[in-house]
Amino acid sequence: xxxxxxxxxxxxDSSGGAGxxxxxxxxxxxxxxxxxxxxxxxxxxxxxxxGIHLVPPDFLREQIDAVFADLAVGAVKIGMVGQLGAIDAxxxxxxxxxxxxxxxxxxxxxxxxxRLLAPEAIDALRKKLVPLASVLxxxxxxxxxxxxxxxAASEAAIERQGERLLAMGCRAVLIKGGHGQGQESVDYLxxxxxxxxxxxxxxxxxxxxxxxxxxSSAIAAELAKGAPLETAVGNAKTFISxxxxxxxxxxxxxxxxxxxxFHRFY
Length: 266
Hints:
Structural class: alpha/beta
Low-confidence stretches: none
């Protein structure tokens, strides 16, 4: 039996809570074989990022090519790209290999506030990677940054921003409401056919490190298993909500600890 496989193209988190490590944990928890192409090494922990070492774009391209040349990749998740050269390398590789599903998480700033994408690369992200995405998964600040607009503060404003992002060429946009207010965290899935609100109770915890990375990789995992987009997003949100709800079962670090990817198992 061939296992469903997904590829994550992202940065490495030395503390294991976000980035490549969170993606691979998510893939494994959801029954998907995970492969990786690393864009950057970060020196970070639950309190913040202290250093970033960017991987040369040519070697990033080699990693992606090596995976596609051998594995049946059902979906690709793209997280931290770090630099303009990485965007060009990823764009070139994806155009050659034409994966069925691409989940783009436009990581620009870490939970700690540390910048993870060079400012000059944001326009390339808009023009080169967004049009290749099956689904774009920005949080409220990232959606605003991609559009050079204030952060949306109402459902109508969120839907308008989603429609503007959709016009950049991606097939769907999931605007995540974790940075919003209120008792519920509402994500909005915007497609050409309309929008769908996906509410979940807002969970009181400081342990949210890697939440965005894990949600986008959970969507990729579900797509790799053959789920339609709306089902994939719904299943991924259910998984992440439970991972956040169980995050306080153990203590990791002295800052924003990780979510519990393997809450179903221990």
